[in-house]
Amino acid sequence: MSNNPKQVQTKPLKFKIKKVKEYSPEIGDYYKPNKTLPIKYITNSGISKKPEWLQIEGCPCIIISVSDANQTVELNSFSAAPGRNFRIKLDDLRDNFIKCPLVDVYITNLMTILINII
User: Fold this and answer.
1) Is residue 68 part of a domain?
2) Do 98 and 59 meet the contact criterion of CB atoms below 8 Å apart?
3) Hey, is 19 helix, strand or coil?
4) How many helices (H) and strands (E) does the chain have?
5) Is 82 domain-assigned?
6) pLDDT digits (tens, 9 = 90+) for 50-80
7) What is the pTM of this model?
8) Residue span of the structural domain in which 70 resides
9) With contact defined as beta carbons under 8 Å apart, do 61 and 93 qualify?
10) Phi/psi-derived region of residue 104, left when phi > 0, alpha when psi is between -120 and 50, beta in every other case
C-alpha cells in the first residue's frame, strides 16, 4: 500500500468574457439626477464663473448634445431656463443619473418609492 494519494490532473479553466455594449445616451433622452449639485452652466464665451443649482435630485433633464470626442453630455434641467445648459462627463451621467424612458409620450421612472421596513 502506498501512502501517496492519487494526484488528480486538472485542466486550467477557460472563460470567454463577453463585452456588454455600453449604453450611449442620445439627444432627446431624459435622465433624472440622484443627487443635487451646483454646476457651472454654459455661456456664449465658455463656462460661467459661479455655479447654479442645475442638477436637482428627481428633476428630469433632457440631453441637448453628446460629444463622443470629449466624452461629455450637455443637459438642460426642467427647473432651469431653456438656455441654461450644463455639461458633464459621460461617467458622471452613468454614476449620478437614472434614465427615464418615454412611454406613450410620457416620461416614466420619475417617482422614487421609499419602503420603510419595520
Assistant:
1) yes
2) no
3) coil
4) 1, 11
5) yes
6) 999 999 999 999 999 998 888 999 999 999 9
7) 0.72
8) 30-107
9) no
10) left
Question: For residue 43, which amino acid is it?
Answer: T
Report the CATH number that the domain containing residue 56 is assigned in CATH: 2.30.30
Is residue 24 a part of any domain in this protein?
no
Strands 102-103 and 97-100 come out as: unpaired
Does 80 reside within a domain?
yes
Number of domains making up the chain = 1
Rounded to an integer, what distance in angstroms lies between the CA atom of residue 26 and that of residue 45? 25
Unique residue bearing C-alpha cell 433624472: 32
Residue positions counted in the chain: 118
Please give the grid coordinates belonging to residue 98: 437614472
Phi, psi of 53, rounded to the nearest 5 degrees: -80, 80
What letter represents residue 58's amino acid?
Answer: G
